[in-house]
Amino acid sequence: MPDRQCIEVDNLRKSFGASLVLDDVSLQVDRGNSLVVIGESGSGKSVLLKCMLGLLTPDSGSVVVEGNSVATHRESFLDRCGVLFQGGALFDSIPVWQNVAFRRLHGSGRLSARQARQLGEEKLERVGLDRQVANLFPIELSGGMQKRVALARAIACNPDYLFFDEPTAGLDPIRSNDISALISDVASDMKVTTVTVTHDMGCVRAVASGIMMLRQGRISWFGDLDEFDKASNRYVARFSGSAQCAIDENGNLGKNMD
Amino acid sequence: MKLLHFPVPVGMACLAIFSRVGHASMFLAATLAALAKPPHYFREFARALVSIGYNSIPIVGLTTLFTGGALALQVFSGGSRLNAEAAVPSIVAIGMVRELGPVLCGLMIAGRVGSAIAAEVATMRVTDQIDALKTLSTNPLNYLVAPRVAAATLVLPMLTAVGDVVGILGGYLVGTTRLGFSSSEYLGTTVRYLESGDIVSGLAKGAMFGFIVAVCGCYCGLNAGKGARGVGAATTRSVATASILIIAANFVMTELFF
Ligand SMILES: Nc1ncnc2c1ncn2[C@@H]1O[C@H](COP(=O)(O)OP(=O)(O)OP(=O)(O)O)[C@@H](O)[C@H]1O
Ligand SMILES: [Mg+2]
């Protein structure tokens, strides 16, 4: 049934010039589930996310959402997506509230400026930002505040799919817990299917129903949260913090760090 | 043996040129489609009108004022050898209106506006803002490219008209203060030999140059490489390409209107 397996990625390959970034990646995310992608810096997580969204064209392989290929149905898929980019990607020439309500001002389902502003302010409050922030421009905000504005923009239009690229990076621990809780709330309230890229174990534990570990462009581990904590895979163990050990380039266990 | 290898780099270079020209042509076609097809973003268009048109009046005015003055001096010194000093006002007027007004405007705008468009769009690209637009159901061609191209194409003829008038004024100031023309004599000769065809051909050139500047700026910006260096390179490329195309298009259009 195409409905159950909501997002299906098959044998995805992507390279830039000579460097192969994604090598035969296949995965599935069921409706309402929340996949977390972890992996070291440069392992291809952001590229995977962009390929899933159809923003990058893979060299081979396919991304299918509810039975439709993203390559041919990108617009209608993106209409139902909220995306938080790693760097925030806020539009710096317009004020914060217009950023948050951008889709309702310029894209589908347009609202009047007043209604859009109200929507913007509501969503800013939802991510813990003051209404006064609405009139500022993105460059007038701190990095963490920009992240939260970008998060507000991603969830603004009640999407069916949410993609987060490092939603808690650059936030203080308290705020980052709040955001993790917010993401898991949004996901369960709105029956949203989410894919989250993160390094933050707190976020992984709060959000994940499935965890995927990407290493050098390949999936090196896949499982749920319980399995994650008990995993014998050394990288996973090291990532989850349950093993304090050094690992050399080839993945062999070295001596204890302390 | 070496000789046999000679066609390889030549063939590669040809393929690269064809691919680039093809890519640019497809962009041009998509831009024209975006200009014709809704959604149209009138606020962006108005913003572009102000930044391209209104804010460029001083630079265009200064350039053409001095050029008109210099032209009067040059024509006088050349004309005096043929006893044709009396023709100074009409040669200045025809030279400004048919040739120097539009070309100077085009080149100044390529430097002032083309570079700004390229830098802005390229920055948006390297910070994922272009991808963010796509995920917010907004086509960058409609939202970013079409308003700028439309505004530049509309506003350049107006700037050219300003440049023509100010250039003639420059000639008039030099003619009446340095070359011994009386005010009525200078203006009378200017108007007597100027035809409406001269003015129309100059304004048409202006429109073409505006189109070239905005399309080059957007194209180079959207295809920028990575990081700050990518933005810088895109800016340089946009100004260089637009300048060369303006000079070439000027020749072709002059030939057409001849
Ligand atoms: N547009 C691009 N052009 C060329 N190479 C790229 C491009 N985008 C990504 N890469 C390369 O792909 C690899 C994976 O990049 P990616 O951004 O997916 O890493 P990541 O796993 O998200 O890392 P991080 O956790 O640091 O964000 C990197 O080696 C990077 O150099
Ligand atoms: Mg990344």
Which terms would index this structure?
heterodimer, A: 258 residues, alpha/beta, Rossmann fold, 6-stranded mixed β-sheet, 4-stranded antiparallel β-sheet, 12 strands, 34% helix, 27% strand, B: 258 residues, mainly alpha, 0% strand, binds adenosine-5'-triphosphate, binds magnesium ion
C-alpha Rg of chain A, in Å? 19 Å
CATH architecture tag of the largest domain in chain A: 3-Layer(aba) Sandwich
Number of domains of chain A: 2
Q: How many β-strand stretches of chain B? A: 0
Quaternary structure classification = heterodimer
CATH class term of the largest domain in chain A: Alpha Beta
Structural class of chain A: alpha/beta
CATH superfamily of the largest domain in chain A: P-loop containing nucleotide triphosphate hydrolases
Order of helices and strands of chain B: HHHHHHHHHH
Small molecules in complex: adenosine-5'-triphosphate, magnesium ion
Average pLDDT figure of chain A: 85
Description:
The complex is a heterodimer of chains A (258) and B (258). By secondary structure, chain A is α/β, with parallel strands linked by helices. Chain A folds into 2 domains: 5-80 and 159-256, P-loop containing nucleotide triphosphate hydrolases (Rossmann fold), CATH 3.40.50; 94-158. Chain A contains 10 helices and 12 strands. Chain A has helices at 45-53, 74-78, 96-100, 102-106, 113-126, 143-155, 173-189, 201-207, 225-230, 234-240; strands spanning 5-16, 19-30, 34-38, 60-65, 68-69, 81-84, 161-165, 193-197, 210-215, 218-223, 245-247, 253-256. In chain A, the strands form 3 sheets. In chain A, strands 6-7-8-3-9-10 form a 6-stranded mixed beta sheet. A 4-stranded antiparallel beta sheet of chain A has the order 2-1-4-5, with helices on one face. Chain A has a two-stranded antiparallel ribbon with strand order 11-12. In chain A, β9 (210-215) and β10 (218-223) form a beta hairpin. With 258 residues, chain B is mainly alpha-helical. Chain B has one domain (40-257). Chain B is 86% helix and 0% strand. Chain B contains 10 helices and no strands. Chain B has helices spanning 2-5, 7-36, 42-53, 57-79, 88-126, 129-135, 140-177, 183-193, 196-222, 227-257. The longest helix of chain B is centred in the middle third of the chain and has 39 residues, at 88-126. The N and C termini of chain B lie far apart (52 Å). The mean pLDDT of chain B is 93. At the A-B interface, β6 and α4 of A face α6 of B. Bound molecules: adenosine-5'-triphosphate (ATP) and magnesium ion (MG).
